[in-house]
Design goal:
The chain is 29% helix and 18% strand. With 175 residues, the chain is of the alpha+beta class. The termini are far apart.
Length: 175
């Protein structure tokens, strides 16, 4: 096999730069250090020259579910369903009133909904809220209406962020 000097130099430089971050390149742990197991994820320790600041978690928001979150999502869901269930208003008014509460993706779809075709005239119960236990950011609100049960999906991107609607639809009667 014929080796190319340029390729060898590039590979050597790459190996050196990777080992510089890794620290000890030998097979034995450095004196006084704790051996680590490679899990496929980078591991950095204090004093290794890497920034271990608050952004270590890559900006994933700390979000919890509490009484205030439940009240907030119920209030938002009830307000939006009231705005949604108005078949007698103009399309422009209907969409303008709803738009601040809609996630951008759903707002794009909702632009094409004709409120006259929304069969709900009266909300008779709800919202009943359900969510996955480990997910404080997304919930389903269910409403009983004069046109059957309807569901609304709501999502927030952070603890202090508003709940935004990602979908409103009639509930599947088989669920």
């Amino acid at each position: 096999m014929r080796q190319h000097p340029a390729l060898t130099a590039v590979l050597a430089a790459a190996a050196f730069s990777l080992s510089a971050c890794a620290g000890n390149t030998g097979t034995e742990p450095a004196a006084g250090s704790t051996p680590t197991v490679n899990t496929g994820q980078e591991s950095h320790h204090a004093g290794d020259g890497h920034d271990h600041g608050a952004d270590e978690h890559y900006g994933i928001p700390e979000v919890t579910w509490d009484a205030a979150a439940e009240k907030s999502v119920k209030d938002t869901a009830a307000k939006v369903m009231g705005l949604f269930a108005r078949p007698d208003v103009s399309e422009t008014t209907w969409f303008t009133d709803l738009a601040p509460y809609l996630a951008p993706e759903y707002a794009e779809d909702a632009k094409y909904i004709d409120p006259a075709r929304v069969p709900i005239r009266k909300i008779t119960d709800g919202p009943a809220i359900s969510r996955d236990a480990g997910n404080p950011m997304t919930v389903t609100a269910t409403f009983a209406t004069d046109a059957g049960n309807w569901t609304m999906l709501l999502h927030r991107s952070g603890q202090q962020q508003p709940w935004l609607i990602t979908a409103i639809s009639p509930q599947d009667p088989t669920s």
